[in-house]
Amino acid sequence: MFYWRGEHEGVQLGFTSAEVSNLAAHVGSADAARRNRVALERVTGSLRFLNQTHSADVHDALEPTDSPPSGDAWVCEDGSVSLAVAVADCLPVLLVGGGPRGPVTAAAHAGRSGLMAGVLENTVRAMRQRRAQSIRAWIGPGACGSCYEVPQEMVNDLASHRPGLASLTRWGTPALDLRAHAPHSLRSSQSMCTMWEGAPSKRLDSSPTAPRRAGAPLRAGSPGSCGSHERPRSQELSKGLAAVNRRIDAAVASAGRSVAPELIVVTKYFPAEDAVRLVRLGAAQLGENKDQEAAAKAKQVAEQLENESPRWHFIGQLQSNKAKSVARYAHAVHSVDRGKLVAPLSRGPGRAGER
Asked: Which end of the chain has the least Cβ crowding within 10 Å, N or C?
């Protein structure tokens, strides 16, 4: 159930493994995610999750709220709340410091957007405001610099003034190394790779830590392993994609054609994290046939990939009352089988202001 578990000055810490499966209610089956959370909480006790938005916003876990607060990090002044963040390829970061009321604990979701916007700096600042001392940070599993391929323009824009951020993939293309840059954001003198054995911590200062047992800031997600700079799920998708492309190439050669057809990878019933992995593996066209699932998935993928977002194809039968919604994210609709769909499809892009 856990990729790694540890304890620091009475505070329990952990990063879950792929065995836990999906814990995000907005990805795939919400019922399955709730069941997975219940199973996890049988081991950890009750956990609190954020409504994550790829921001740099930090929430106070002791503030009363009727629903999960929006933000990408939170801090508990006395360690009494078990904090959780959910990640796929982004970095989960757990922090513990000694405070006057007990351990000051924090959990942060640090993806590219949040990391660039200062989510880790804001988290440490919020801990300092609560008089935390001797802060230690644990950086959990996330996309490594040998896998996270991005356009060269993005590297030029982001990495020129950010230590450790620029990288290359194993195949020699531009990449970002969020895990190498994160310690710099935490004012650490060394970069670290936590995808190997254990989850090492780096001290941010040298003042003493107050020992006391408190709530556990536990990361919730399904990171897998990156032992050879590639995680099992990405490897699985990469092999499948390569096999399909080989079949296409063979069919093109057999037919004597010079131009191969475009491959549309259908991601129905698969989580947004898989769609993100597929895009990073080179799949530029994705297909869906249920609007409710597709709309949510397209939004999540756009938030994670920003300028790298794929072209979405709606390939299922389209109901008239869903046409405007589909037009807001789909670049192509393959199932216009009656004239009355044309008007709502034409209105959708105008409302969204996308095309």
From this structure: C
Q: Do domains 2-221 and 232-352 have the same CATH topology?
A: no
At 86-144, the pLDDT tens digits run 888 889 999 999 999 889 999 999 999 999 999 999 999 999 999 999 889 988 888 88
DSSP strand pairing (285-288 vs 311-314): parallel
The encoded tokens of residue 272 equal 């947004």
Topology (CATH) of 2-221: CNF1/YfiH-like putative cysteine hydrolases (3.60.140)
User: Under a CB-based contact definition with an 8 Å cutoff, are residues 38 and 44 in contact?
Assistant: no
Q: State which amino acid sits at residue 119.
A: V
Q: What residue spans define the domains of the chain?
A: 2-221, 232-352
- Tell me which CATH homologous superfamily contains domain 232-352: Alanine racemase (3.20.20.10)
pTM of the model: 0.57
234 vs 136: CA distance, rounded Å:
31
Residue 51: count other Cβ atoms within 10 Å of its Cβ.
12
- How far apart CA 16 and CA 7 sit, in angstroms, is 15
Q: From the CB of residue 69, how many other CB atoms can be counted at a distance below 10 Å?
A: 16
